[in-house]
Automatic annotation (TrEMBL):
Protein name: Mth938-like domain-containing protein
Alphabetical list of InterPro entries matching this protein: MTH938-like_sf (IPR036748), NDUFAF3/AAMDC (IPR007523)
The organism of origin for this protein: Stappia taiwanensis
SUPFAM superfamilies from the UniProt entry: MTH938-like (SSF64076)
PANTHER family: NADH DEHYDROGENASE [UBIQUINONE] 1 ALPHA SUBCOMPLEX ASSEMBLY FACTOR 3 (PTHR21192:SF2), NUCLEAR PROTEIN E3-3 (PTHR21192)
Length: 132
């Protein structure tokens, strides 16, 4: 909560729930009758704004929230932008060690796959790089 005289306080973007992604493109995503500009991370605790802008930004630190919720995630879909880009072997190994299978794919394919697996009530999470 902002104290008197602090002005505008910007909070981290977070939607507390698991909902399908309705649309993507133009640098962002739409879900739950809202929109978010930039990349997102969708885990069991909700949908979060995510600082990653390129595949090079996807590392263990960027996936910290995924690792925190590993017990509730079987598969992580990694939306790598316009095209499929493999994730580094060491990151894939760290995810596997945490009990999470990772599947990199284009952001569009990741959105579609996430929505299907979510509708089947599967233990799925996704990280999605925004595309134009």
């Amino acid at each position: 909560m902002a104290k008197r005289g602090e002005g505008i306080v910007i909070r981290d973007a977070h939607f507390p729930g698991r909902v399908p992604i309705d649309a993507y493109g133009e640098g962002g995503f739409r879900f739950a009758e809202m929109s978010h500009r930039g990349s997102i991370l969708c885990v069991p605790s909700g949908i979060y704004g995510w600082d990653a802008r390129a595949v090079a930004d996807i590392d263990a630190a960027a996936l910290d929230r995924v690792f925190q919720e590993a017990g509730d995630i079987e598969v992580l879909l990694v939306g790598t932008g316009e095209t499929l880009v493999p994730i580094p072997a060491d990151l894939k190994a760290a995810l596997r060690e945490a009990g999470i299978r990772s599947d990199p794919m284009s952001t569009g394919a990741a959105v579609r796959t996430y929505n299907v697996l979510l509708s089947e009530d599967r233990a799925v999470a996704t990280v999605l790089l925004a595309v134009d």
